[in-house]
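Sample entry (240 residues):
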Amino acid sequence: MYFLGTLYLFTLSDIKTFVIPETAFGLFGALSGPAMTTIPNVGVGNVLARAPRVLLWTWLNTLMFTFSNQRLPEAVKEDKINKPQRPLAAGRINCVQTRQLLLVTIPIVYCACQYIGAPEETLILTVLNWMYNELGASDENWIVRNLVLAATYAGYCIGAVKVASGNDVELTIAAYQWVAIIAGVISTTMHVQDLKDQEGDDARGRRTAPAHKYWPLDEKHIKQWGNQVNLVWKIISDPG
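Predicted structure, serialized as tokens:
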């Protein structure tokens, strides 16, 4: 139970930002039927029966990301300030053990997704994870960081819909357009989460938007995004 609790704490802060919204997107996307997938007739019961599978797929990929994201010394330094409940910051596990877990988890998750679904998206998320955490995209520049996170969010969206829809399912052009809108929103608003983490980010030297005193996000900015999303969705829904 201690080990399971440790795994849960690795993903705790990402459950509300990745696991729950991406699982919901996958289920609702599958339920939309031909609007977003190549399924002509949607069986509501079949989609809902896949909900645990979608949740597991999303959580496993998030777990793999968090191992990589939290294992480095500078990440532990930040988490001791911003998120002291995380396993490494709390002393439940050390950096070497987390690296070993990551080495084991990558092939296990990929093999599991051969059965669960969306193995291609899992592979793409693994590459984005490597770019963000191991190559330092998270620290390079806040714009680069936002773009990689937006691509990651899009990968979760596409994979979750495929898992919820079943095998041999493709997304429609409208679905990819909608995912692109979501990625656009993420890439231009993700830095809002850095407001609450400034102390820890400063401690590790992360180049965030608040650190640059650059904050292109206000009520007007959010309303403009909302108007653009409504306009694009109307075009997608009624191209005529």
